[in-house]
What we know:
Elements: E1 5-12, H1 18-26, E2 30-34, E3 41-49, E4 52-58, H2 70-79, E5 86-92, H3 96-107, E6 113-118, H4 120-125, E7 128-130, H5 132-139, E8 143-145, H6 155-166, H7 180-196, H8 206-214, H9 218-221, H10 230-244, H11 248-267, E9 268-270, H12 278-286, H13 292-309, H14 312-332, H15 337-354, H16 357-373, H17 375-388, H18 397-402, H19 407-412, H20 420-429, H21 439-449, H22 452-479, H23 501-535, H24 546-556, H25 561-569, H26 575-584, H27 589-597, H28 604-634, H29 636-648, H30 655-663, H31 670-678, H32 689-698, H33 701-713, H34 718-728, H35 731-759
Parallel strand pairs: 1-4, 1-5, 5-6, 6-8
Antiparallel strand pairs: 2-3, 3-4, 7-9
Helix pairs in contact: 3-11, 5-11, 7-8, 7-10, 13-16, 14-15, 15-23, 16-23, 20-22, 21-32, 21-33, 23-34, 24-28, 29-30, 30-31, 33-35, 34-35
Amino acid sequence: xxxxxxxxxxxxxxxxxxxxxxxxxxxxxxxxxxxxxxxxxxxxxxxxxxxxxxxxxxxxxxxxxxxxxxxxxxxxxxxxxxxxxxxxxxxxxxxxxxxxxxxxxxxxxxxxxxxxxxxxxxxxxxxxxxxxxxxxxxxxxxxxxxxxxxxxxxxxxxxxxxxxxxxxxxxxxxxxxxxxxxxxxxxxxxxxxxxxxxxxxxxxxxxxxxxxxxxxxxxxxxxxxxxxxxxxxxxxxxxxxxxxxxxxxxxxxxxxxxxxxxxxxxxxxxxxxxxxxxxxxxxxxxxxxxxxxxxxxxxxxxxxxxxxxxxxxxxxxxxxxxxxxxxxxxxxxxxxxxxxxxxxxxxxxxxxxxxxxxxxxxxxxxxxxxxxxxxxxxxxxxxxxxxxxxxxxxxxxxxxxxxxxxxxxxxxxxxxxxxxxxxxxxxxxxxxxxxxxxxxxxxxxxxxxxxxxxxxxxxxxxxxxxxxxxxxxxxxxxxxxxxxxxxxxxxxxxxxxxxxxxxxxxxxxxxxxxxxxxxxxxxxxxxxxxxxxxxxxxxxxxxxxxxxxxxxxxxxxxxxxxxxxxxxxxxxxxxxxxxxxxxxxxxxxxxxxxxxxxxxxxxxxxxxxxxxxxxxxxxxxxxxxxxxxxxxxxxxxxxxxxxxxxxxxxxxxxxxxxxxxxxxxxxxxxxxxxxxxxxxxxxxxxxxxxxxxxxxxxxxxxxxxxxxxxxxxxxxxxxxxxxxxxxxxxxxxxxxxxxxxxxxxxxxxxxxxxxxxxxxxxxxxxx
Length: 767
């Protein structure tokens, strides 16, 4: 055989170690995406073996080809396409009879198979002993034993794979018999299919499709090519029901299990002394009905802490690097539009995305440990009963908890949810978890509007509102938009295993690469657009001559020679700083801020000089920020804010809050900076006392609460919409999510503001 390029499908049940084998074979030569139209992950890779180029397709884990889930439908579609040279069927050798059910269905495709009995070490510990030559005769395929999570554990597979590929033409395929009556029914339908001469499926035996039609498999049943044989299928099903008083699909499933039972009984022995597995002893504690939930919460807290606390230093390094890069590039480029676009738009936009990379890496490192060790299945088991009361499943809980840190990695963490509907609903409600990006808004507004004794409670109630609305929304969506019969999932608890470093590293790299390529590109483009909207058109003529007024303040309130002498003689300033102050006759704000941070105690005469300098700086900053405010009002963002003010007014928002809300589309933290500019506080942050004081004089506690409520319920950032599009494979869903959350936020915030105003709750300005 001269063929040197092969396409191989890797198939098996969930938790059979298939991913470990895939990683061991392909290494870093992998690509990850989504199958078109569904939320199921597609994974491919390549490697070279004895001069042969092999493309390996890692199919989703399934228990059968019955098309009862998106994963099974994807596997069916992939395996019925032309071009698959070989199926590597990975079997969990600790539970062979259950794992081999899929094998009986794969065999019907008549595609050459190589059976890989994985976790051979665990099977040995359980006392299972296999008669491999006899098993090979049953299934008509070579069998190899592997330990997928060991560095040398896949070597037997590579050796057998090389032999198998070299003689594919001689590869036999089994023909499972279902009994004379059923076989006759299968043949009758298959003959009808053969008469159709369907070119698209010439490479698949008509018998395979006949079996699927008799089982009423949804994938095959809805194919237009087989519509003409439906009458024959229904006739045969009625005949079998009359003969055996049992449905054809149930009868064929029984026959498969009977064959497997006989094969396993004939080829597998169990040693007399079967030791109780360590996994059982651990599960007696971790899934205990009293201890399981507290232990789960502790593990989730540790995961949460690890992801968002350990990530802080590298996030600061990245932030500082992009800050330095912005200053460096800004210093070498000439002043003007291009400089500002590069520094504020592009570098700022990229930095705003990459700063979350440590979160992504550490989150998926933690998830890889939980998944590869086997605990994730236990977590789902522990939380399943509680989450199903709200229309979700146990696996939804982990992403919801991680959503308190950052919505983007939390959405990506939903890949552990098997159900397409449950995963979609979880993604749709995740933005209601109050992420860290909203925290600066709370940190700015709560101290400004609420007494200290109520501040912690106010923060707590905001978070609780998000959780309650998310769970209610999930229940409503599962009862309406994503309504369907309750899906029952096999809650399999695989044995505990030691995760491999290689598997965890690949897991992290896959997700991080997707984040940077997809979400990063979109948020970068959006950041540039928002930069342009916040900058242009530029206002050239102002209502006042701000420059002249600033110059007048500098001249009228310049520090006198006597004041400068006080600074020099008392040692408050010296060296280059003193010379600069003497030249400008003004103390820069950064020096004044530095003295404030150091909590310096001044004499009366020193304090008088400091107060004079601060007064001068305050007036100059007020004029500069008033000019910035007027300029911003003239920009696209300012004009849109004015236009949208009537829409936001029922929530108690004026055009300034509306403008800041629009700017916060890129990231919620932008709200604080935008309010600082609008209220002449310059580059304010959440700890800006000046901005707090200004806001408390302009708004009521009710309005402040409504600002927080709207920030909580609306979309966290455009990166969230980008990752929702990425994970759901649909711009429509992403746009619906953004629009739906805006409407939800508007309705609830409006109700709160109007009811609060009517009852006069928090309607008095306290500033």
